[in-house]
Amino acid sequence: MVGSAATILQVVINPYLTACTVKGTQPVQRLNIGGSSNSIGTTVAPFFVTGIVFGGLSMSDVKVSQLMIPFLALMAVIALVAFVMTKLSLPDIQGTKAEVGEKLEKSVWSFSHLTLGVISIFFYVGVEVAIGANINLYAISLGGSFAAQAALMATFYWGGMLVGRLISSSLSKISPSVQLGVTTVLATVFTIAAIVLNNPWLLVVVGLFHSVMWGSIFTLSVAKLGKYTSVASGVFMIGVVGGAIMPLMQGAMADAFGGSWRMTWFIVIVGELFMLYYALSGSKVKQSAE
Predict the structure, then answer these.
(1) What is the phi/psi pair of residue 276, to 5°?
(2) HSE toward the beta carbon, residue 99, CA cutoff 13 A
(3) Which segments within 132-193 are labelled E, that is strand?
(4) What tens digit of pLDDT does each residue of 36-69 get?
(5) Is the model more confident about 171 or about 122?
(6) Mean pLDDT of 17-34
């Protein structure tokens, strides 16, 4: 239920940030400013839950009864936010959806840069979650100091995404295709280095490069779609299922390799290379709705 709600929020918020006019900014900047809030949450949440909600207890000592008050508090916060939103008067941005009685003559899938963008976001969310979710298992499997630092690795990975988004939010002159191209190359290099050197800390650095990819891919995917933008945003969100599929595939690969995670990181390289193709070629607008 929460996952479905989050998806609907993304469908609404992403095109709004892209289409609204803010002097001196470009769409990818505004998306990364919004994404920074998300990154703050993913960075702080683990410490908040374990240190404050559970009072430092290990997961094995946590009881279901202890979750009641935190969840009730969360429900109250969500209700308050929903109430405040009903009182705000957000402008309806023209030209991003079909008007009443107007039909969309084409299939939204006929725009190749959107279709390839959906595939790109599948790989992006897949590799982002794969590292964030499995890096600690990789570190634990290596033992020694890596195992002792496993929890920090995931935190620093998500923290790197926050830093990267804050940096990208100030880049008003660099196009999303260039940002996507450069970061995918760097992410690929560090992932290969992590495999060769068998060092999970190199994967932590990849978070810094992953930070700008969502905003870049979305901006490129809905470029010049006009009244198709709102529908395209919904179609775009289909690709986030990669975050459920690719980490699972990686886990299956680790099992096939006898519990070793080292070679499974090639799945990340495949995703990075497809996104590089999208940045260089696939994102070019061959058919415009404007």
Answers:
(1) -65, -40
(2) 2
(3) none
(4) 777 777 777 766 776 666 666 666 677 777 778 8
(5) 122
(6) 80
- The position carrying tokens 């992932």 is 191
Is 289 within the bounds of a domain? no
Q: Which domain holds residue 278?
A: 2-282
Distance CA 143, CA 138 (A): 9
Is residue 23 in a domain? yes
Q: What are phi and psi of 44, to 5 degrees?
A: -85, -35
Output the DSSP codes for 28-45.
Answer: HHHHHHHHHHHHHHHHHH
Distance CA 161, CA 168 (A): 10
Cα-based distances in Å from 1 to 4, 122, 180, 246: 5, 21, 32, 21
Q: Domains in the chain: how many in total?
A: 1
Tokens 């690929």 sit at which residue?
Answer: 188
Q: What gap in Å lies between CA 276 and CA 181, rounded to an integer?
A: 5
Domain CATH number, residue 67: 1.20.1250.20
In a domain, 287, yes or no: no
Element (H, E) at 9: helix 2-19
Is 288 among the domain residues? no
